[in-house]
Specification:
- There is one protein chain.
- Helix content is 45%, strand content 11%.
- It is of the alpha+beta class and 229 residues long.
- It has one domain (3-218).
- Helix 2 packs across helix 3.
- The protein is globular and about 55 Å long.
């Protein structure tokens, strides 16, 4: 995505991107970019990225990157690169430590825990992972036209109140919606899969590579200046 795209998202009243320039904003931008690569518009991609957050229970409120699990295999030396307080540690720190120990970081590879979003016929949205491949219904894309923004409808919207006392039929409705969606999935014309976890890791990889390249260029310039004198 371009800087202008990010600006549009940040200015939207729908609050598509977390405020600031921290790790949450970076992760969300990576997810939106991955959805946009499927051909969805910028705002439809942003709505989808925001909607799927309900499916995760992450410490930072965003989609999982898997970096925290990979960091468990780091050596004592590598762990010293992480903040001393656990609550201060986020995916940026995990990635920073991991890229310095490539034996613990399968760069560019899919992990079993990766969150996979599947868009079926640009209408149905499912979530799964390699570890748990059975797809689960997330919701629907409504009002999608050629080059137009669409609305994302989470399954909870159609279920209503999830309460056995106030809405005793919600479980039956949920099962019916899931079965109908899975049937449509089996008879789909097109299925598009997006690995949002890999998209986040790849975004962090690109930032690290950019910074490393910039540091090398500065070192070369400094060396050139020394020789010139």
């Amino acid at each position: 995505m371009t800087k202008r795209d990010i600006q549009h998202l940040m200015e939207s009243k729908e609050q598509f991107v977390p405020p600031g320039r921290g790790i949450r904003a970076l992760k969300r931008a990576a997810e939106i970019g991955a959805f946009r690569a499927t051909g969805l518009t910028l705002f439809t991609s942003a709505r989808l990225a925001k909607t799927i957050l309900d499916e995760f229970n992450q410490y930072d409120g965003e989609a999982p990157s898997g970096l925290n699990f990979l960091a468990r295999n780091l050596s004592r030396e590598a762990i010293k690169l992480l903040p001393p307080q656990a609550e201060q540690t986020n995916d940026y720190h995990y990635h920073y430590a991991l890229i310095r120990h490539p034996d613990s970081y399968p760069k560019g590879k899919t992990l079993g825990s990766d969150a996979i979003i599947e868009i079926v016929d640009f209408r149905l949205i499912f979530i799964s992972s390699r570890q748990f491949p059975k797809p689960s219904l997330v919701g629907w894309i409504e009002g999608l036209g050629r080059g137009e923004d669409a609305r994302i409808v989470h399954v909870a919207e159609k279920l209503g109140l999830i309460d056995d006392q106030e809405n005793p039929g919600w479980r039956a409705v949920s099962a019916q919606l899931e079965n109908d969606a899975l049937r449509d999935r089996e008879n789909a014309i097109a299925r598009t899969t997006i690995n949002v976890s890999l998209a986040i890791r790849s975004a962090l990889d690109r930032i690290a590579e950019h910074r490393a390249s910039k540091s090398r260029n500065l070192a070369v310039d400094a060396q050139s200046n020394i020789h010139a004198k």
